[in-house]
Each structure stands twice: as structure tokens, then as C-alpha cells.
């Protein structure tokens, strides 16, 4: 086993090449991990470390040691490589339901337990991982905005709608860009305004387009997204990264909704309206 510190692979191809080179020299448990990871790339992208370890028939601690041996800080960093690769190949809902049925997790009581646990773990991870300085900056940006524009389409529409609802109840000027009727409201972006843009892989083109327009017009941006490689993360913005745990490839939005609640109440408190 090498004792020198190695850097994390920068791409999935680099990781797979490293795996090919070192797998034969790994101890038995770590070799099991390597073989499973190499054979099940789709599962790595969408499953928790506990699920992967169970499928590979190794302890979760062995899977974590394997990730570190490969140069990653932990499982989540390795998973990011796979998510970046497969984000544009996200399974459709029929495939996701089949995944649940095949795993025996389609009963209502089992689903409730699975989604509850995924939500709890996602929220705990948010509390540990959120950048506190960026969170404060986001509140400052939104509290000082003339009007807050909000965009989050498809799966994140519920979060965007909640933000619009809470701002309206606190009488904070806000506009929800819903895309209803395929109407765009880019012309409503004005001087002194700010935009909250929410999107996770596979990223919604209309959300990204509105964020890019706002950035080009000099508006302050607060971005809620999942990966540093997100097209939203490339914009000049306050970036708040959220990782949600999946259940059968259905993404729980517990952490994202918790972050939205935090932002809305903190902005209201800063504006002294709550």
C-alpha cells in the first residue's frame, strides 16, 4: 500500500485507469470494493455508501477506505465523478419505479421509512457541509434587493414556489418565473434586483438561461445547485451546494426545502418584517 498522499482523480476516465493499475495489489476487502465499483457504475452514481457496501458484501468502512486509497476524501467525492458522467443519462420514471420494485421497496410503509431516512441524512449533511460565509452573503444579497426573482423548474418548482409564497406573506417584493405557457419574463429583471436560481442535474435549460441573462445584466445571483461543475456554478454568484440522497433514483428535496426555509426567514428577519 502506498504511503504517500495521492490526489483525487479529476475525471472518471482517470479514476478508472487508476483502478485498473492498482486493483490487483489491493487487500481482499478493498479488492472486492474495486471489483464492485468497476462493474456497477450506474449504481455508484445514484446510491448511498451503505447500499453500495451492502451490495458489495463489505462493511461501509471498507468502502470508505477504498475511496481514500483511490485519492478521494470519501465516498461523496467519488460519487460526484459518476454523477457528472451520468447526469445527462438520468433514468426515466419507469426505470426508477422498476428499480424500487426490484429492490422490494415499493410498499408504502417501506417507502415512508426510506424517504424519511434519506431526508434526515440529507438535512444532517446540509447542516455539516453548508458554507456559512456564503449563506450569510446570500441573505445579505437577497435582503438588499429591490425585487427578488425566483426560478426553479421541473423537480425544483416546489422549492421555488415555496420561496415565492413565503416572500409574499412577508410582503417582500418577489417574482416567480414559472415558465407557464412558455412565457419568459426576462424583461422584468431590473436594476437593483436579485435572482435565486435552483437546478440539479440534469440541469433545466430555461433555469440556466434566465440565470445567464440576469448575470449579463449585472443582477446579484444566489444559486442553489448540486455540483461545482453545474452550469449555474460557472456564473458569478453566491453558490450554495446541496446534496440530496436518492431513494431508487427518486431525489428527496428535504435539504433543499430546509435551505429555502432558512433563506426566506433569514431575509425576512434582516428586513425586519417577521
From TrEMBL:
Ranges of residues in domain HTH rpiR-type: 13-89
Cell division in keyword set: no
Pfam families named in the record: HTH_6 (PF01418), SIS (PF01380)
Membrane-crossing residue ranges in chain numbering: none
Residue stretches making up the SIS domain: 138-274
UniProt keyword list: DNA-binding, Transcription, Transcription regulation
Protein name: MurR/RpiR family transcriptional regulator
Organism: Chelativorans composti
Amino acid at each position: 500500500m502506498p504511503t504517500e498522499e495521492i490526489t483525487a482523480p479529476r475525471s472518471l476516465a482517470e479514476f478508472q485507469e487508476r483502478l485498473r493499475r492498482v486493483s490487483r495489489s489491493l487487500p481482499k476487502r478493498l479488492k472486492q470494493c474495486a471489483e464492485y465499483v468497476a462493474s456497477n457504475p450506474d449504481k455508484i452514481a445514484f446510491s448511498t455508501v451503505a447500499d453500495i457496501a451492502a451490495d458489495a458484501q463489505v462493511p461501509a468502512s471498507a468502502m470508505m477506505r477504498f475511496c481514500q486509497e483511490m485519492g478521494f476524501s470519501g465516498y461523496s467525492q467519488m460519487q460526484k465523478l459518476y454523477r457528472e458522467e451520468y447526469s445527462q443519462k438520468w433514468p426515466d420514471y419507469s426505470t426508477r419505479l422498476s428499480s424500487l420494485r426490484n429492490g422490494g421497496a415499493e410498499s408504502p410503509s417501506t417507502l415512508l421509512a426510506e424517504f424519511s431516512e434519506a431526508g434526515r441524512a440529507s438535512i444532517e449533511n446540509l447542516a455539516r457541509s453548508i458554507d456559512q460565509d456564503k449563506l450569510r452573503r446570500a441573505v445579505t444579497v437577497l435582503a438588499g434587493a429591490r425585487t427578488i426573482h425566483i426560478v426553479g423548474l421541473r423537480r425544483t418548482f416546489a422549492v421555488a414556489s415555496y420561496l415565492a409564497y413565503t416572500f409574499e406573506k412577508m410582503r417582500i417584493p418577489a417574482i416567480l418565473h414559472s415558465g407557464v405557457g412558455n412565457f419568459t419574463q426576462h424583461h422584468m429583471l431590473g436594476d437593483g434586483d436579485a435572482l435565486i436560481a435552483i437546478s440539479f442535474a440534469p440541469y433545466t435549460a430555461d433555469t440556466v438561461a434566465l440565470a445567464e441573462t440576469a448575470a449579463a445584466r449585472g443582477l446579484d445571483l444566489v444559486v442553489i445547485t448540486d455540483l461545482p461543475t453545474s452550469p449555474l456554478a460557472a456564473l458569478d454568484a453566491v453558490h450554495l451546494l446541496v446534496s440530496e440522497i436518492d431513494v431508487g433514483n427518486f431525489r428527496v428535496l428535504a435539504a433543499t426545502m430546509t435551505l429555502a426555509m432558512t433563506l426566506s426567514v433569514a431575509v425576512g428577519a434582516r428586513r425586519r418584517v417577521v
